[in-house]
Amino acid sequence: xxxxxxxxxxxxxxxxxxxxxxxxxxxxxxxxxxxxxxxxxxxxxxxxxxxxxxxxxxxxxxxxxxxxxxxxxxxxxxxxxxxxxxxxxxxxxxxxxxxxxxxxxxxxxxxxxxxxxxxxxxxxxxxxxxxxxxxxxxxxxxxxxxxxxxxxxxxxxxxxxxxxxxxxxxxxxxxxxxxxxxxxxxxxxxxxxxxxxxxxxxxxxxxxxxxxxxxxxxxxxxxxxxxxxxxxxxxxxxxxxxxxxxxxxxxxxxxxxxxxxxxxxxxxxxxxxxxxxxxxxxxxxxxxxxxxxxxxxxxxxxxxxxxxxxxxxxxxxxxxxxxxxxxxxxxxxxxxxxxxxxxxxxxxxxxxxxxxxxxxxxxxxxxxxxxxxxxxxxxxxxxxxxxxxxxxxxxxxxxxxxxxxxxxxxxxxxxxxxxxxxxxxxxxxxxxxxxxxxxxxxxxxxxxxxxxxxxxxxxxx
Length: 461
Description:
The chain is of the alpha+beta class and about 450 residues long. The protein contains 16 helices and ten strands.
């Protein structure tokens, strides 16, 4: 693997180092990978899709994330977007590394004699150069004024993000101390917390114990969700479709088994009915749990696993309660049946299990919404299916009915219904649709739902 020398910089992909005049220049991993990609493809202008597929190949990010990355790399290289020496923007296409004299050399060769890991010049000096502030002028105050003003357009918002990055370079703790409780301090604190993931020199930005903690937290959630709203909405829709397809498959399989079971009098039309019910239940459940997962993944960077579990459980519980109320009201109003059907608790448990499986299988996803490919995507689907299946098994053993058991209860309470699942119980070895039959079918329902949800959620556009 070669290393690259251009201007006063040495870039080593193998050692993952960017060195300038013997001093290491810190970059977060994604931004380092992007710089390497641009240098390796310097003979061409690479479009944004190529960059996303190569650098962010396991997650989905917004276009603004790429703009942020390019801006940070330019600042690290001392480049100017108006008169670029290193990275040029190609309008309506992407970017190109344009420095003419790039020397490739073996990375086994000796590094420059003045050292490669020497301490960087002080963060204060670097930030002063980047912000354009004279050395004898306080560099914090102009940047603090920028991050606390009200942005008027998208360009102003990006300027604020750059100012927040520069404050991290100057020193996070000192920037927070000087920020204090001046007007719009909660917004500025949220912005600093958001941008710290894009700065290799940033420290922690705590909320607890600080003024305006709730306002800062809500502002942070709004910032992240607004930047990822389009992606999150698309994932929510795909999760709903995935859940609906899973429900259709489960309903169809259950209907075919019911028709083919020994002693069954169910007509073939019951397959269509059960497939339709499964589609509706799966789509509604997928929409709820998928929305919770998408929003949590867009908002949470720290404590990601906890956020995904809680959001999926909450969303599943809310949707389950709505379905439970609507189902009970409809049965009582339309056919006079008063049946204790589930929904709220079941949605809470299945949603939480889906969040657990999805979070565990995508724990390495950073900087965007997870979008694994190939075997990794199969692994995510398998994990989510397993946790949902186990959760469904626990619910059925506790006597909580899922879709199949609920249909059986309604059919038993209805006169001359042909949708009772008694033949399935006999097929399994019970005289009626008993606890073993319910556990087997419930586990299958949960696993198939988790599988469809995960496949829909991780589908790349």
